[in-house]
Design a protein that fits this description.
The chain has 15 helices and 17 strands. With 485 residues, the protein is of the alpha/beta class. The strands form 5 sheets. Strands 1, 4, 5, 6, 7, 8, 11, 12 and 15 form a 9-stranded mixed β-sheet that branches. Strands 2-3 form a two-stranded antiparallel sheet. A two-stranded antiparallel ribbon has the order 9-10.
Length: 485
């Protein structure tokens, strides 16, 4: 390689660029904060947001309440009295039909059916069946669309969560929020288009962990990755100025850095340089917008009561739901909440009771809060996990205790607002809650429908990488027209 070419590659090296900018890891943290609408363009820049709006959108934004670990549909939304009638009896071979099992139950000699210990009732004009574990959710039943026929190809957590978030079981693809940032951009120049909030449940506090690649950008530009908002004193890492650096000094430094970067751009023509200039400018603006957004101290008492007593405790699911509404008010495009703790292989009755209490009131409050502010019509809210749970017990079955293994063949999610038909149930499972008997919905169908509601044709939102055009829904996906308002 010639000396001149070596010099070019040296200047394009990211670590070198960040170190010369005197920001180190802090600069790397800021690199994820760019709104794609701030890009200055160039031959290799991402297409403009309007390139991917193919139809009139019904939703402007998404709040995705992801329940990590696989909530049991049998205890929450999919009422199966037959399981109570046949409790302790063997799962018929004709029902299982040779479906593969995880390594956690494949060695069991017996698969005794386990009916839920919790009662169900019908609620609202829609007469939706909801467990008594979810009394607040029951009050907003007529705002929800329950999809009881979700199914996935993945049977273990890592590939299953990755599949839902990126459309592929293999890591390395862009997440949903990254695709939307790339395709639609941001409506707020002072906040990232894609924000992430995490909470840990009480049902299984030491359950499955989560990892940042779930909100990663994959092969898209790094400006599209999700920005995690934390519950500590620094909601976004590396955003504050170092000690001894005033606002005026910061402004002068950015101005001089911009001049240097402009010279670098003129010399090498790398569009990433323009992106860096815009990133630092957005981070500068976020020093004001993020603290204001994350400060819930001025929320009125009736809002705290609506979301529940944990709403004032940073890092809880309730507090994150309240923050999600504040982010939605400020036109953040994709707001992802992850709530861990649903992986209940044993002691399920006691664990799921705690876990449901974590999320029930706040989830319902978010729906009511958005509606009273006139925002539910253009905000799509999603609630659900990566798969469901088995109808048979994992381990010993007693009158008061049992566990459930992973079940990808059928499970329940709900959606609300943003162009979704309210007060309906879509899809149906058999009497054993094991197989789908009506209107199956694949993960890619779910993703295609979400994109459609945002005005995007899922087959056209693509990115060429390594010679192939990739998309969130890979090579499949059908819009579920029956659930659209």
């Amino acid at each position: 390689m010639e000396k001149e070419e070596l010099n070019y590659h040296y200047h394009l090296n990211r670590r070198h660029f960040l170190s010369k900018a005197s920001l180190g890891l802090g600069g790397l943290g800021l690199a994820s904060l760019l709104s794609p609408t701030s890009l200055l363009g160039g031959p290799s820049s991402s297409p403009r947001p309007e390139d991917f709006r193919h139809i009139a959108p019904k939703a402007k934004r998404v709040i995705y309440l992801f329940q990590s670990g696989g909530p049991s549909q049998h205890e929450l939304f999919d009422y199966k009295p037959k399981l109570r009638e046949m409790v302790g009896e063997e799962l018929p071979d004709s029902v299982r039909n040779g479906q593969r099992l995880t390594g956690m139950t494949s060695g069991q000699d017996s698969f005794p059916l386990a009916g839920s210990l919790f009662d169900f009732q019908q609620h609202g004009q829609s007469e939706a069946w909801i467990s008594n574990l979810m009394p607040y959710t029951a009050k907003v039943a007529d705002e929800l669309c329950f999809i009881k026929s979700m199914h996935t190809e993945a049977i273990n957590h890592d590939p299953a969560i990755t599949f839902f978030q990126t459309g592929s079981q293999q890591p390395g693809r862009p997440s949903m929020g990254a695709w939307l940032s790339y395709g639609l951009g941001s409506d707020n120049d002072n906040l990232p288009a894609f924000s992430v909030l995490l909470s840990r449940g009480t049902g299984r506090p030491q359950g499955q962990p989560l990892y940042s690649r779930l909100w990663g950008n994959g092969f898209l530009n790094s400006v599209h990755q999700g920005v995690q908002f934390r519950s500590g004193k620094d909601p976004v890492l590396y955003l504050k100025d170092p000690a001894g650096v005033s606002k005026i000094d910061r402004r002068k430094m950015l101005d001089e850095l911009s001049k240097l970067n402009s010279l670098h751009m003129a010399e090498f023509g790398d569009p990433e340089t323009n992106a860096r200039i815009a990133q630092y400018e957005l981070a500068y603006r976020m020093q004001t917008s993020v603290p204001e957004t994350m400060d819930i101290s001025k929320e009125p008492d009736h809002i705290y009561r609506m979301y529940g007593p944990e709403a004032a405790q940073p890092g809880t699911f309730a507090a994150n739901c309240l923050l999600a509404r504040r982010l939605a008010e400020r036109d953040v495009r994709f707001i992802q909440l992850y709530h861990m703790g649903w992986d209940q292989h044993e002691n399920l009755p006691s664990a799921i009771e705690k876990q449901a209490k974590d999320v029930d009131q706040a989830s319902a409050a978010l729906i009511m809060d958005l509606k009273q502010r006139g925002m539910l019509d253009d905000t799509l809210v999603i609630w659900g996990g990566e798969f469901g749970r088995t109808n048979y017990s994992q381990g010993a079955l007693t009158k008061t205790n049992y566990g459930r293994d992973h079940h990808p063949r059928c499970f329940t999610v709900w959606m609300a607002g943003g162009g979704i038909k309210p007060g309906m149930t879509y899809g149906e499972t058999d009497d054993f809650g094991y197989n789908i008997v009506k209107d199956p919905v694949h993960v890619h169908d779910f993703q295609a429908t979400m994109l459609h509601l945002l005005g995007v044709d899922h087959e056209k939102l693509t990115y060429k990488y390594q010679g192939r055009r990739f998309r969130l829904t890979d090579v499949s996906g059908e819009i579920i027209h029956d659930i659209l308002a």
